[in-house]
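F.,

This is the one I mentioned.
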């Protein structure tokens, strides 16, 4: 669900979204005429898709169709399958068959990929100086929910798909989708 929203948002406002990512997103490739992957030609953003191993087993051709769609549209996209289960990035996921779904090493790798994606998508000057692309203030990396300095105060950083990964502001898309 969330991955499809990221793709649809990047396609709907291509001049305002510079990067988008999906971790264990579902429904990215369907047989429907409104399948998210078919929106690749409308996207200008760099994209990253981290696919869970069990999602890949359920739909093994989805990653190939994603690659083909974004390559044909000449949109930079990285697509990879993680050895973890759907939901691996969420620390409080319930157990499945008595085993944890959350995978700390894979989640840390995925979050690192997201931050690197945003740094790459921002201007070289911003990435080099460690500045938020929206307000040009210095950012510090933190974990989900950590307070960060923004526009003179601290904000709660939810790291939802539509927030600035640098400081948590929603200025990159004009409004917050999760608050």
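My design for it:
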């Amino acid at each position: 669900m969330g991955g499809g929203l990221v793709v649809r948002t990047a396609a709907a406002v291509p001049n305002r979204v510079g990067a988008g990512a999906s971790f264990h997103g579902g429904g990215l490739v369907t047989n429907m005429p409104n399948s998210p992957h078919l929106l690749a030609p409308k996207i200008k953003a760099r994209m990253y898709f981290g696919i869970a191993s069990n999602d890949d087993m359920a739909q093994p051709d989805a990653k190939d169709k994603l690659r083909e769609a974004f390559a044909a549209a000449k949109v930079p996209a990285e697509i990879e399958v993680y050895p973890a289960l759907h939901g691996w990035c969420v620390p409080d996921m319930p157990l499945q068959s008595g085993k944890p779904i959350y995978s700390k090493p894979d989640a840390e790798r995925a979050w690192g990929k997201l931050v690197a994606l945003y740094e790459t998508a921002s201007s070289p000057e911003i990435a080099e100086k460690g500045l938020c692309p929206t307000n040009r203030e210095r950012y510090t990396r933190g974990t989900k929910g950590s307070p960060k300095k923004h526009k003179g105060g601290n904000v709660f950083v939810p790291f939802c798909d539509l927030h600035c990964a640098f400081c948590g502001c929603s200025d990159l898309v004009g409004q917050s989708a999760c608050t």
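Residues 130-179 have pLDDT under 50 and may be disordered.

Talk soon.
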